[in-house]
Amino acid sequence: MYKLNQRQRMFTINYFKTGNATQSAINAGYAPTRAEVTGSELVRNSKVSEYLAELNTQMQTSVVTKKEQKLQKLEQIYEHEPLPETISARDRILAISEHNKMDGDYAPEKHALLGNIVIEVIYRDK
């Protein structure tokens, strides 16, 4: 594990969440008068950098896991599991559509409403 003291650990977690080194130093208990310098020094600290990288890896793993769980649930819906009689054809089609969006099968779409003017931008893959 990383040899960080309590304030360094608190700084790192807060900095990971906010990206603000000065405020993270203050929140971790460092002197407000030196928080800007302390925050800058801590960001360059190799142990803090390693812990930030670990937090980032953990977050990415969590996001991927949650996405996989959502995709599995959508697959259950459009494959008639577990209760086929309660899932309508419309529900299955919506589940397939959402699954495809989450899996990246559709190009992104953007819509904007400006009073009576509607602008729609659709990105098409070649």
How would you explain this protein's 3D organization?
This protein is mainly α and 126 residues long. It has one domain (6-114). The protein is built from five helices and two strands. The longest helix has 33 residues, at 46-78. It is elongated and about 60 Å long. The N and C termini lie far apart (47 Å). The mean pLDDT is 78.
Strand and helix map with partners:
Blueprint: H1 6-18, H2 21-27, H3 35-44, H4 46-78, H5 89-102, E1 109-114, E2 117-122
Antiparallel strand pairs: 1-2
Helix pairs in contact: 1-2, 1-4, 2-3, 4-5
Helix content: 55-70%
Mean pLDDT: 78
Taking the alpha carbons of the first and last residues, their distance comes to 47 Å
The SSE string, one letter per element, is HHHHHEE
How many domains would you count in the coordinates? 1
Q: Rounded to an integer, what's the Rg over CA atoms?
A: 23 Å
Strand numbers in spatial order across the main sheet: 1-2
Shape, principal axes of CA atoms: elongated
Low-confidence spans: none
Short description:
The protein is mainly alpha-helical. The protein is 61% helix and 10% strand. It has one domain (6-114).
Question: Main traits of this protein?
Answer:
126 residues, mainly alpha
